[in-house]
Amino acid sequence: MKTSVRKERARLLRRMLTVLEGHLGRRRRRRRPDALETLLGAVLADTGNDFLAAQILDDLKEELVDWNELRVTTPRSIELLIHQLPDAAEKALTVKRILQKLFQQRHVLNLNHFKRFGQARLLHELDAFGGISQAVKARVLLKAFDCNLLPLTGEIERVSKRVGLVESYLTTDKVSEMLDEILPPKRIYSFYHLVSEHAETICVPRNTACADCVLVKICARGKSVMKKGETK
After folding, report:
1. Which range of residues forms the domain containing residue 130?
2. What is the pTM of this model?
3. Are 35 and 144 in contact (CB under 8 A)?
4. What is the pLDDT of residues 126-166, one digit of tens each?
5. In this structure, are 17 and 41 located in the same domain?
6. C-alpha distance from residue 198 to each of 78, 155, 167, 180 (Å)
7. CA nearest 146: which of 38, 1, 25?
8. In the predicted model, is pLDDT for residue 232 greater than 60?
9. 50 in the same domain as 15
């Protein structure tokens, strides 16, 4: 990315965060959540909806005695419990595999031993479970271990392209590279949570209510949509 373009988009990103923080409030790290719950929730969400995954995870916690009950449940039964999610069958297998491997290797269902690991070792340990995407790993490290990794979900990618932080034709890998160039590590946590919430409530995949969006004055797509509306 050319220096002039990088500076322009970094300014746009700062304005975007300022507007979202003014509307939704700042997002700061608080007490670290339970690492295993964070991992299971991240698997349920994968590159998709954090909020739906969190709701389903809460439902599981209410319905089950503990995670061991889920461990001894069949993948098909787990799939039925999370059927609202896309790719529920695949996610059920991943959840079952994680719980089984933890129990076989450590005879406990927690990730307390992860606390002493650095970022590289954490990524290695998560890889060892198998079938865990980059977005899932980044979610876990960002939320449970205070690592500044951006989970590039479909929602983050959608909003970034619409606003104009990155070109709309870029692949997911390229979007990740471009955002890394303009997003300061210390703002990743806030950016992730604010943009995810905005994508869930306003900047939805279809029938986006641009007229009601707080970003409409700085958003490339929003300005285009509003301009077309004025000329009708």
Report:
1. 35-144
2. 0.90
3. yes
4. 999 998 999 999 999 999 999 999 999 999 999 999 999 99
5. no
6. 30, 9, 19, 20
7. 38
8. no
9. no
